[in-house]
Amino acid sequence: MRTGVRIGVDVGAARVGLSRSDPAGVLATPVTTLVRSDPDDVDGDDMRALVDAVGEHRALEVVVGLPRSLSGEEGAAAGHARCYATALARAVAPVPVRLVDERLTTVAAHRNLHDSGRPGRRHREVVDQAAAVLILQTALDHERAGGAPPGELVTTRKPRRKGTQG
């Protein structure tokens, strides 16, 4: 297994949860919740904070959750996560950004917070961090079990259109 800190990201419409792993890549822990800038602003405060975190922790890679439906389909939220991950990949290059399936992580994060005794009305302030921890921990466990980096590598190249040459 590769060693190095990984950054986990849970992208929401209003907030972005952030987690990080230990240098050995074994355990994910919460870092912070960022207020999401305008979704159309790829240079917002949340993106700058993520870029700073990647540099500060000398991250090996960034793992962004990809919200799919239970059937595996990708809806609008997945499209937003893909756009965010692509903008992040451009901003932190050459550090790789990977998308990993995050089905039900927010539901599991709420359940874990409830089970820990945190009142439901206080979930909002930390649920995105808890979801980022679950996303990253799942990715770490997957890599440890399979020996390969998890998920899908985000590329920053624009796809070529049919009929164009070059």
How is this fold's topology laid out?
Elements (H helix, E strand, L loop, with lengths): L5 E6 L3 E7 L6 E8 L9 H12 L4 E6 L9 H17 L4 E5 L3 H11 L11 H20 L5 E2 L13
Parallel strand pairs: 1-4, 4-5
Antiparallel strand pairs: 1-2, 2-3, 5-6
Helix pairs in contact: 1-2, 3-4
Major sheet strand order: 3-2-1-4-5-6
CATH architecture designation:
2-Layer Sandwich
The CATH topology turns out to be Nucleotidyltransferase, domain 5
CATH superfamily: YqgF/RNase H-like domain
H/E element order: EEEHEHEHHE
Specify the helix fraction band: 25-40%
Radius of gyration: 16 Å
Note poorly predicted spans: none
Shape call: globular
Report how far the terminal alpha carbons are from each other: 38 Å
Reading off the top of the CATH hierarchy, the class is best stated as: Alpha Beta
Structural class: alpha/beta
SS summary, helix count: 4
Instruction: Tell me the domain tally.
Output: 1
What's the mean pLDDT score?
84
Beta-strand content bin: 15-25%
Note the main sheet. Answer: 6 strands, mixed
Summarize the structure in words.
By secondary structure, the protein is of the alpha/beta class. The protein has one domain (6-153): YqgF/RNase H-like domain (Nucleotidyltransferase, domain 5, 2-Layer Sandwich). It has 4 helices and 6 strands, in the order βββαβαβααβ. It has helices at 45-56, 76-92, 105-115, 127-146, and strands at residues 6-11, 15-21, 28-35, 61-66, 97-101, 152-153. It has a 6-stranded mixed sheet, sandwiched between helices. α3 (105-115) packs across α4 (127-146). It is globular.
